[in-house]
Design a protein that fits this description.
The chain is mostly helical. It is built from 7 helices and 3 strands, in the order H-H-H-H-E-H-H-E-E-H. The longest helix is centred in the middle third of the chain and has 50 residues.
């Protein structure tokens, strides 16, 4: 029981950043120091720790919600950017996933104080789900996102070919 008390007191002191209590506990455990706590004082300490933890958790949840909202806004802006680029272009467009991920990350940072970890595969899946005509193609380590109607010209553009590429498909 006293070792549990010692561990619990250390946990409380660290959570509360109570320098006085941390100093006392750093010299040895509560048994060796013959420290005595009134039950009411222990309850007050535990309640204080619980309040600080709750406040920290609430703030973390608020931060997470803000980051998620920023991610949703950034994704909507990226979808809008892709549609505008495709609409305003005369030729085919191939979007590099790496470039889109960098744009997404910068925009999330602008919209919130934190950053959402950017998983490029997850971003690709979200974009493909939002834009049904978009397709992903892998070229080595690169992932290119191309509109279905622009596949041939976009592959030619991505491969830097000047001549036409003949793609043979088998009709079923």
């Amino acid at each position: 029981m006293p070792m549990k008390l010692n561990d619990r007191l250390k946990s409380c002191a660290e959570t509360l950043q109570d320098k006085e209590l941390l100093t006392k506990l750093s010299t040895g455990d509560v048994i060796a120091q013959d420290l005595k706590y009134h039950p009411a004082c222990l309850v007050a300490l535990y309640n204080k720790e619980r309040a600080v933890k709750k406040k920290t958790e609430e703030q973390a949840q608020i931060d997470t919600d803000a980051e998620n909202e920023a991610g949703d806004v950034a994704l909507a802006e990226m979808v809008n950017y892709i549609f505008k680029t495709q609409r305003n272009s005369d030729g085919a467009n191939a979007f590099r996933l790496a470039d889109l991920a960098n744009m997404y990350e910068r925009r999330v940072r602008q919209l919130s104080d934190g950053t959402i970890p950017i998983l490029r595969t997850r971003l690709k899946e979200m974009l493909l789900a939002k834009i049904s005509d978009l397709q992903a193609y892998t070229k080595g380590m690169e992932v290119l996102l191309v509109f279905e109607k622009d596949v041939g010209p976009a592959i030619a553009l991505a491969c830097n070919y000047d001549d036409t590429i003949h793609i043979r498909t088998k009709l079923q």
